[in-house]
Write a structure and sequence with these properties.
It is built from four helices and no strands. With about 120 residues, the protein is mainly alpha-helical. It has a domain at about 10-65. This is PiggyBac transposable element-derived protein 4. It comes from Plakobranchus ocellatus.
Length: about 120
């Protein structure tokens, strides 16, 4: 058989697709790991908000994995840590009153060097 120019001989895929797959590994990984939270709502504004949250949690996981290469961080653990970090300012501003006490903000029974 003859080979078609611009196609891989073994798989038959165009070379442009193979080149894209080699160079865009992070994008494919992010697409696979993103939560499907956009399927839970039909309001476009909430879809955009959930997409921003999904992308930012993935970005924080990548940064934390790079900083702590020996510490394996699961996606759910990353979501929990991110939500706790986002709540810290809110909790501290709510607890400035004299009658309120500061709640404990720490992951349940997990020790992490991220805080």
């Amino acid at each position: 058989m003859h080979s078609i120019p611009g196609r891989c001989e073994t798989s038959g895929e165009p070379e442009i697709v193979l080149t894209k797959n080699k160079s865009k590994g992070g994008v494919d990984t992010m697409d696979q790991m993103a939560y499907a939270s956009t399927e839970k709502t039909k309001t476009w504004l909430l879809v955009v908000l959930f997409n921003i949250i999904d992308l930012s949690t993935y970005a924080t996981r990548v940064i934390r994995q790079a900083r702590l290469s020996e510490h394996k961080l699961l996606h759910d653990d990353n979501l929990q840590l991110s939500s706790l970090r986002l709540q810290e300012n809110w909790h501290s501003s709510r607890c400035e009153g004299e009658h309120l006490t500061q709640p404990s903000i720490s992951p349940s029974n997990r020790t992490s060097p991220l805080f």
